[in-house]
Structures are given as structure tokens and as C-alpha cells.
Amino acid sequence: MKSAKIEELKRQYEDIVAILKESGRLDLWIAANESYAKSLLMSAASYFEHEVIEILRAYFSHHSSGNVRLDSFVWKMALNRKFYSLFDFGANNVNGFFSLFGEEVKNSWRKYSDENNLGDAIKDFLSICNDRNKIVHQNYAAYQLEDSFDKLFPRYENACKFLEALKEMFKVHP
User: Fold this and answer.
1) S-S: 124 plus which of 20, 56, 110, 155, CB 3.0-4.6 Å?
2) Is 43 inside a domain boundary?
3) Run of H or E including 107
4) 45 falls in which pLDDT band (50, 70, 90)?
């Protein structure tokens, strides 16, 4: 469950880096790396937010049997602009998120997560979103990311495994 646009961003980055390295312009290569790393971070976090909200929206819509009043209420009160309140991005797990659906769901998630070795995927998901919060609220232009584009991209790919698992947990069965 990866974003085609983020894959395109990676291809652009690789092309630009190759040209800059070939030209010997390491100063521009460093600047491009910093800029593209920030762009990747923001793109990944935005993609995660969109996908999580859409997974939940489909789930609730299905279980409300298409009741537009209920769908509207869930959208306005639980989902729209609420992504960053659903998770504790400073934590090492997503138990708080799953506990919003009750102990049974939280325990079911723990078992599923353990069986599918999702610990690192969850940590990458949380840390990318947490870094997004930092970069947005601590002066985007001046903020120095710890990871380069080349280190951040595999974290994004790994975090996508969490999205796939989330989609499986909230799969809508006809």
C-alpha cells in the first residue's frame, strides 16, 4: 500500500542526485538531499493521514449501512482533521489507537501485530508522523532532519506495512 506519487518523488530525487553528482556539485547535492528528505517526510505523513482516515471512513460507512446522518457525524466529530489526535506519536506502539475501539480490538491487534512482526513498521509510522509534527511546528525551513532521503525512504516503505495491516484489521466484508 504505497503511494505512486511518493514513488515518483523517489525517481525524481535519484535523477537529480545523479546529475548533481556527475557535475561535481556536491553543495547542490546536499541541498537537494535536505529538500527532498523534507518533501518525502511531509508527503509520507500526509499519505499516512489520508489512508488511515479513508480506511476508517469506509469501515464506519459500511457499518452504518450508509446512513448519511451517522456518516456525517462520524466524519465531522471523529475523522475530519482528527488524525493527529488518534495516535500518540511519541509512543512506541499504537495500542492507544486500537483501545479507542475497545479492549477486544486492542488485544486482537496486539496478537496480529506480534504474529506479523509489525513492531518496526509501527515505530517507523509513528516516528515519521512525529517528525512531521516537529518539522511543521519548529520552523520548517530551519529544521534539520536526522535522516537523509536515502535513510528515510526505507522507513516510509516499512511504515506502509502498518497501513496494510490496518486495512486488514478494518477490512469491510460484504
Assistant:
1) 155
2) yes
3) helix 103-115
4) very high
Chain mean position to CA 71: 24
Specify if 165 maps to a domain: yes
In a domain, 174, yes or no: no
In the chain, how many domains are there? Answer: 1
pTM of the model: 0.92
Cα distance from N-terminal residue to C-terminal residue, the chain: 21
Q: Return all residues near 100 (Cβ < 8 A) that are at least 6 apart.
A: 86
Residue 57 has which C-alpha cell? 471512513
Contacts of 137 (CB under 8 A, 6+ apart): none
Burial (Cβ within 10 Å: 0-12, 13-18, ≥19) of residue 106 = middle
Q: How big is the chain by its Cα radius of gyration, in Å?
A: 18
Task: Name the burial class of residue 102, with classes exposed (0-12), middle (13-18) and buried (19+) by CB atoms within 10 angstroms of its CB.
Answer: exposed
> 25 in a domain, yes or no?
yes
Q: Maximum distance among all alpha carbons in the chain?
A: 61
CA distance 117 to 6: 24
Confidence of residue 113 (pLDDT cuts 50, 70, 90): very high
Q: Are 45 and 128 in contact (CB under 8 A)?
A: yes
Domain that holds residue 26: 4-169
Whether the predicted pLDDT of 173 surpasses 70: no
